[in-house]
Amino acid sequence: MKARSHFKGKKVFEHLKEARKKGQKATEESHGIETPGHIIGGADAAKELVTSALLIWVIGNTLGLLQRQIFLLFSLFCFGFLLWKVGRSAVLAWSRIERVNRLIEEEKYEIEHNREEEKAELKEMYVAKGFSGELLNTVVDVLMADDNKLLGVMLEEELGVSLETFDHPLKQALGAGIGVFLAAISLALGVKLFALPGLFIAGFLVIFAASYVIAFIEKIAFVHYIVWNLSITFLAVFGTLFITRFILFEGL
Amino acid sequence: MKKKYTSPYALDEYFASGYEESENPFIKEGSRPWGKHVALLSAVSAAIFLLFAYIAKFYSFNIESFFLVLVYFLAGTPSLIVSLKNLQKLNVNIQVLMTLGALLSVLIGSQLEGGLLLVLFALSEALEESVAKKTKGALNALHKIAPTTAYVINDTDNTVHAKSVREIELDTKILVKAGEIIPLDGLVIEGSSFVNLAHLTGESVPIAKKVGNEVQAGSLNTDGTLTISVTKTSAESTLAKIIQLITEAHEAKPQIQKILDRFGRRYATTVILLAFNFALFLPFIFPSIPFIGNEGSIYRALAFLIAASPCALIIATPTAYLSAISACARKGVLLKGGIVLDALAKCKKLGFDKTGTLTTGKLTCSSVDIDGNTMNLEEGIAIAAGLERAVVHPIAEAVLKYAQEKKINQVAITDMKVIPGHGVEGYVTISENRNYAVIGNVDFILEKISDPSRVKSIINMVKRAGHVVTLLLVNDTVLIFHFLDELRRDVKTVIKDLEKEIEVAMLTGDHVENANYVAKTLGIKEIYSDLKPQDKLRIVNDLAEKYPLVMVGDGINDAPALTRAMVGIAMGEIGSATAINAADIVLLRDDLSTLSWLIKKSKKTISIVKQNLTLSISIIILNALFSILGFIPLWLAVILHEGSTVAVGLNSMRLLRK
Prior knowledge:
The complex is a heterodimer. Chain A is mostly helical. Chain A has one domain (37-244). Chain A has nine helices and no strands. Mean pLDDT of chain A is 83; it is low at 29-34. In chain B, helix 5 packs parallel to helix 24 (634-653) and helix 11 packs antiparallel against helix 23 (594-628). The A-B interface holds A 13, 128, 130-135, 223-224, 227-228, 231-232, 234-235, 238-239, 242-243, 245-246, 249-251 and B 4-5, 60-63, 65-66, 69-70, 72-73, 76-77, 80-81, 84-85, 88, 149, 157, 159-162.
C-alpha cells in the first residue's frame, strides 16, 4: 500500500524518470530561463538590452522622431530595463533556491519514512548503470547505510540536482545590473560620438564582447556563437526596420 | 510499443553519427526528427524567401529587403561561420570566395544576386552533405551495431557483470542474450541460436550456431542465449577490422583528388588577387570600362570571382569515389579507398585461385575403388575412417562423412601418427593380425607400393574426370578414394561475364588433369597448375610484371599472392582478419557474380570522374572568360557556377546505384 502511494501506481523506472524531470524543473526559472552565474547573467542582459535598444532606435527613427526624443526614450528604457533585470534576476534565483529546498525536504522525508521504496529506486538506478548480482546489493547496502550520503546520492542521481551550482541571488542580480549598465553606456557613447552608425558599431561590439564572454565561460565554439548572436540581432533589427518602413510608407 | 529506456548504445550512435542532432540522446526521442536535414531545410527556405524577394522587387523595395534579410540570415550565417573558421586557419578556400562574393554584391547594390549566390551555394552544400552522409551510411551503421560492453560471466559464482569490450581478455566467458549483438569474436561453449550476419554482409538468412561453432562480433543473436569464449580481443575482432577498412577507404584519397586539394588552396588566393586587379586596373587598360555600374570593372570582377570559383571541380572527384565506395559497401564489397577503384579499372588480367574461390573448397567423396584382395571395400573404408578421425582436413572430413553415410563404423587404430603434408599412419588388427595402414596423398603412398602401375592407371583415369584422389594402403591392397571439389553456383556464367571485361587465368596447386578439367568446364583458357605456394607467388610476380593484375583468392592461403598483385580481392566466409589485411578488396558475401559488377563499377567511376572534371573545368573557363569580357551578367555567372556544382554532384550520385 505504502509502495503504491510512493510510486503512485507507476513502475520504478517511470517514477525515476518523473523525479528527474521534477528536479530539472526545480532548477530552472519559473518565469523564463536564466543561466545561473553572475557573469553569464550580466553578458546575457547586455545582449538583450542592445537588441531592444536598437529596435527602439530604428522604429523611432522611421517614425520620424527627433534624435533627442529617441535618445530620451532610449535612456528611459535603459533605466527601466536595468531595474527590471536586477529585480527579476534576484527573484528568480531566490525562487529556485526555495524550490530546491522543498525538494530536499521531500527527499529527506522519503528516506526517513519510505526506505524500502527508496531502496528499490536506488537498485533500479544502479541496474541501469550496469551493476548486477552481489555487487549491486553491496553498493545499495553501502549507500543505504548513511542517510546523509543517501540524500546526496538521491538528489544528484534521482533528481539531477547538483550541489554548489548556483550563485547567491544578490550576486546574480548585481551581475545582470552591471551588464545592462555597461551596454547602455556603450550605446550612448556610440551615438554621441558617431550618431546612428556609432549606435550600430557600439551594438556590434557589445554583442561581440558579451557572446565572447559566454562562449569562453561555457566553452562553446567562439566563431559559431558570436556570428549566430550577431546574425539574430541583424535579423531582428533589419527585419523590423523594413517592415516598419513598408507599413509607414508603402503599405497600409 | 514505447521503448522502456533509450538504447544502451545511444551515446555511441551519437558519436558515430558525428554529433548529428537527429541522433542526440539529450533531445527527447519524439523531437529528434526536427534535427534531420536542417541544412537542407534552411537552404530551401532561403530559396523560397529569395523567390519572394524577386517577386517583391517589382512592388516594394522594403518587402524585397525584408525577404533578403531572411535570405542572408538563413543562407549567409552558416557560410560566414565556415569562412571565418577557414580564415582563422589562414585557409582561403572556396567557401571564403563565395562569402566574399555575396558580401561584395551587397556593397555594389546587387543584393539579389548575392542572395542567389548564397542560396545556390547553401543548396549545393546541402546536396554534398547528403551525398557524404549516404556514403558514410555503411560506416555509421557498423558503428551503431558495434557494442562497447559485454556481459562477462564470473567463473567462481556464475554472476554476470557488464565490462567494456576493450578490457575483455581472450578466453573470457561472455553471455549474449536473444536480440543482442555479439560483442566479440568467439566460440560457442553453451547454448544454441540462430545468428544473422545482415549487418556485416547484407546476407539476411540466419545461420544456426551451436556448441563448438565460431561466431563473429557484429552478428545479431536472434533467438537463444549463447555463452561464448572470447577468441579475439576487441581490437582484432572481425567488426573492428571491417570498421578500420571502411574508415581507411574514406580517408585514402586517389591521386587526382590529392592534386586537386593542393591546387585548390593556391587557386582561391589567385582568383581573389586577379579579381582585385581586374576591379582596380581594367578602367585604366580599357578606358571605355568604368569602375561602377553593370558594365563596370567592379561588377565584372565580382562576376569573375564567382565564375572562377572551383566549387564543381573540388567536389568532382570525392563525391564520385565516395558514392562508389558506398554502393560497394551496400553490396557487401569492402575496399581500401577510391585508389583501389582506379587500379581495378586499369587491370587487364584477372587471376583466380581455384580452391575455395572457383570451387567451394568443400570436398565430397563420390566413390571408392579397390585394388587387391587382402580385405573388402567396407573394411577398407572403416580403416580409412579410423585413421582420418584424428585429422582436421577437408579430405578427412569427406572420408568420415562418406563412412557415416554408408553406415560403416570406424575401426580402432593403434600407434597412430600424423605425417604433416603427407598423411596418417597406424596399426589395425585384422583377423587377430596387426597390420600397418597408411592413408595420404598419391605420391606418398605410391612410393610404398611395389608395383604401382595398375593403381597409377586407375588414378590417371580418375584425375582426367577432374577428381581429387587419396589412397589407403593396407598390406598390399589399395583403396582409391575419389573426391569432387564442388564448383560454386553460377561460376560458369560469372567467368563468361568477366571475360567481356578482362582476361581470366586460373592458378591452382592441383594436378594438371584436374586443373584442365575445371578450366574446360568453366571455359578458362589460361591455366597454371601443380603450383606449390612459392610457385604461385612466382607466377603472380611474372604476370604482375607483364600486366596490371587483379588476383582473387580466399585470402587465407593466398595472402602473399593477393598482396603482390596490383589489386588483391579476398572472398569467402567472413571472419578472416588475415584476408582483410592482405587484400585491397574484400567480398563479404560468398557470391562471385559481384566481381564483374565491381569491375564495371570501377570503370564507371573513372568515367564519371572524367565527365565531372571535363564539365567543371569547361564551365569555369568559359564562365570566367565571358564574365570578365562583360558578356555574362552576375546573376547568370552565379547560376552557371552553382548549376555546374549541382550537376556534378547529381552525376556522382548515379554511382550510388547498386
